[in-house]
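This part of the workshop introduces the protein records we will be handling. As an example, a complete record with its sequence and its structure tokens follows.
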Amino acid sequence: MMAELYYNAKVYVEKGHYEQAVLVEDGIIRRIGSSDALLSEAPADAVRVDCGGRTMIPGLNDSHMHFAQFSETLNQAHIADVKSIGEMIEVCRKFAQEHPQRVKNGLHALGWNQDYFTDGGRLPDRHDLDKISTDYPIVLERVCGHIVSVNSKLLEILQSTGEIDKCKGEDCLTDENGVPNGIFTGNGCNIAKRLIPEFTLEERHEFMKDAMEYAVSHGLTSVQSNDVGTTFLDTPAAFRLLHEMYDNGEGKVRYRHQVCFNNLKDFEEYLTHGEYAVGEYKKGSWLTLGPLKLFKDGSLGARTGLMSQGYVDDPENHGLEWISVEDMDRYCQLAKKHNLQVITHCIGDEAVRRTVGCYERAFVDGKNKLRHAVVHCQITDRALLERIAKDDILVFAQPIFLDYDMNIVEKLCGKELASTSYAFGTLLRMGVHLSYGTDCPVEDCNPFTNIYMAVTRKDRQGRPAGGFYPGECVDVETAIDAYTKESAYAEFQEDVKGRLMPGYYADMVLLDRDIFTVDPMEIKDILPVMTIVGGKVVYKK
């Protein structure tokens, strides 16, 4: 039996309870206690690791992200920080010059945000992207993924194949002459992106390894990721790739699938004959099969979040409804039949309201026994918050979104509605099972920036001084619990994950400073010195 003893640490067990040492045997925590006690009781051949008085917390578990897409962004042109359309053009030109093989069939990158542009804040169009190239198709996604800009080459392909006809009305923006200007929203985004050739499975394999290295170096030990059905268009190939990686021992983080489907028929097929019926996921495996993922609306920044009263400066615009109530009811009822959890992307208050209604109609014996969840849950009024709590609906939250959204939410939604939105502290105090994630690559998957935002309600520069609606702040222990035990609850693993206690997986992170006593402004700068998954050291600084 392999045994490791980690001692001389500040071990976070639960609120107000800290120990000094953790004894691990065969990847499972067997004992916690004082350093003196465990040093004397540990097996003679146990590997002893002096933690130097550093703080140890449970491994952090991102409850919603897009890991494969993140792996792609690590290998694409980096446009997340550009401050103008001109800068974005230059970044992409340089990337194409340095990586000609990568762009020979097309260039696809994600991350621009017009609200950060210093040259007017307009959306980039085909004329802008033509300055990068007209020889190959180009798709540049807004940070939210709900607006894309394309060049003339891609428009040409869309028109020659007839795919442009599938972009309905507002999904395809036009210029003053009614000609497509290269800006797409809604389903038009997916149609445009599909024209950029997919990376090979071999390329994706290497990308995923890069992303895993990044994740563990930032303290993530688990990810719950929506890749299949979004990033991967060939669903069986995506499942195969991940199975192969984990079967070969290449996985460094625990990975749980969140799966999308293009239509109800595909979903039913996978429930009866596909991965949900025949996929092999052994007990204790680092790879697990999780919920059905649905999209109800778009994003706030793109003004496609589904709003009950429209947007303050555009009241006729109520946003976008990706899936009808009728279709969503069909998905939820089918999921109920197969005892499957449903999680749904909801930004606007009307998206949340309609989704909650669908869940209620699919409850088992009037209760949320399948742990259906609202992902994001950004814009809410008080009545919605109370309804979510009463129904015991889970929330997968992203406090990091406030870094940008605090600049626009009052302008778009009004102060009254803003005051009850991003109400993650209130939901926790109401007893809601609320977990943290990043929606990476919409935001970086670094969990410490996310925790910082939850604790301070300030942007990265420390603004506003008193915090954005500071009544929604939480303490550090609560934030860590949301990232650990609550994320484990979200995937039905609260009995084996998310705590440093006997019988739990030895998923642990040793930090470079004490997150519980450090100046809150420093939380975002914390990094691990060691990350351990299942008793295995997967990262050491």
